[in-house]
Predict the structure.
Amino acid sequence: MDRAAPKKSRSTLVLFVIILVLVVLGAAGRISDNADLTPAQFTKKHGSTSAEGIAQVLVNKTHPLIPATFVPSQLVVPNVPLRDNITDDEKQVSKVIQVPLQQLFAAALKDGVTLNLQSGYRSYSSQVALYNQYVADQGQAEADMYSAKPGHSEHQTGLAFDAGGLSKPECNIQACYAETSEGKWLQQNSYKYGFIVRYPKDKQGITGYNYEPWHLRYIGAKDAKAFGKNPALTLEEFYKQK
């Protein structure tokens, strides 16, 4: 019996290895199946979000980009007015939003409103530097109310941008942007082109961020219609009810 034990141990080990391989392969299969899930379904299933440049991807304080250093597959410079000192990174956006972004700016101009792009894409490394600077200047608690931690920024997806204008330059990237002609026009019309004001007023408890009337996010024209009917709606609330 003493001699039979090693054979039994080897058999057990082989069986364990086979089971382990099957589990790994099964997991790989489930990962590949996630490509067919909507972002809302992916989030509900995993509690995190895979960023593949799709318009509905959810990115916030509890749903980081995967991987954290994600880079959109195609970044382009849209044919829209840019702020004077914009960086090479920030003048870019995901190709997914190039056409609707240009249409948005053109429609505003037709209505006598001149928008400009303050900031588009922001890389992981850029967000690291920006966030750390805010923390150093204001402290982490304050910084977390208006700046995303690296790997948690919508700017990194290339699907979000900060809008500005010329009517009151001092209100660009400020709460008073909501009272400018540009801010009012965006609030009333951006949904028609698939964009939403991502961080509405008095919704800090849901979004985790202060009111940012200048920060727009592309989610697609179909989904954005719901925000046209209810401008105070947040993306988090929308995905819960969808």
In short: Residues 1-8, 14-38 have pLDDT under 50 and may be disordered. The chain has two domains: 1-36, 38-241.
